[in-house]
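$ fold --in a.seq
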Amino acid sequence: MTDYTEEQRNELEALESIYPDSFTVLSEKPISFTITVTSEAGENDETVQATLKFTYAERYPDEIPLYELLSQENLEDSDIADILKLLREQADENLGMVMIFTLVSAVQEKLNEIVDQIKTRREEETKQKEKEAEEAEKQCFHGTPVTIENFLSWKAKFDLEMLEFKRKKVKEEEQSGKNKLTGKQLFETDHNLDTSDIQFLEEAGNSVEVDESLFQEMDDLELEDEEDDPDYNPAHLESD
């Protein structure tokens, strides 16, 4: 006759020595305990963790122990489902033998795989974001495809805008012409113009320089006296 209590106690002592820092007994009747399993560190030192709770059935190991995932860190819902499925498969395969160490070891390997998958997930997310960015950039360059319908719509709008622009320009030119003053109006509105030339000459004083080389000497000029002019007639001047 199998002594289930003895087998269970022997396994309990072995587990406590194997997992001294992560093994915790919760109760003696029924025997219940937890083992916290942590993955190896990933590429960026990230880890995943699961705390498993086991409770011996009365006829364990000829009966499957009760198990549950009590808590976890950095695991997705799909990861939790995979771990629970794994525990069920391992328990069925090892029925009739003490199996807690086997179950925990299987979960340990699964957590290590998950850490590796985190790297793959991140790489896939990065690629997806890059792909989305490229698609968005292509849309910016390509814009809306030109069709006959949207071209005619754009052309009609453009023509209206140009017509309005021309009307505005003509109106501004007309307004500018109305506001333009004549020379007389300028003198009437700005009295400084009356004395501007005189003021310029006064300010210049003796500083005005004349280039004499531009003029011929008076002796070189051939000037005719009025008396030498054959058409000269003093009577005409008197009559005037």
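$ fold --in b.seq
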Amino acid sequence: MIVEFLSLFCLEKLPKPSLIALPSSMVERSSNVTLKCQSRIQNVTFILEKLQDSGYKREQRSAGHHVEFLLTDLKLKDAGTYFCSYKTMASHECSEKSEHLQLMVTDYHDGRVAPSIKTDTSIIILTTFSLLSIFLLFISVLFIYRCTRHGSSNEEPTKRTSHPKFSEQEATDADLSKMERISILTEEPQEVTCAELNTKVPSEAASVPAEEPAGSCECATPKA
């Protein structure tokens, strides 16, 4: 009973075998295919399993280096991923699992392929599309970030150049106000002089004989 219990478990790992499909890994529906599992050790028990079905398991003993598992009258459900391993008959040492073999079953009457193959292809396409979308999103975010930084850097020189314009405008307004003040100051003395002349004319007329000068100067008295 102890020997039977140990036969269920692998005590050590041996080199993994190879698995190939004959005549091809793509076969038609209702046809036959041979899965050949080969190792470098003789007198072993080969085990064939299926990745999509944990309950699928076929064992076959061999005195040589390989064994052939014959699959007949294939259906679409027989398509999938197969792998094999082996264990020694004496010490029950187990090998590593072989590389996966993808078996495709086609139905040329209606152009269909096994559903498992379609599913794997759909997963690959969906994964590729997702990675491409993430890459394009990253590029878009990077482009927007660079454009934002470029716009903010252009605003600072514009603000700096606008300050001299304002200072020149203020200087021009100051010059105009100064010129207006000077013009007002130059006009006021003329009015005062004319007023003084009007007040002095009667007193001077009393002392000077009444003679009309060659050119008389008339000054307009400013209105109050």
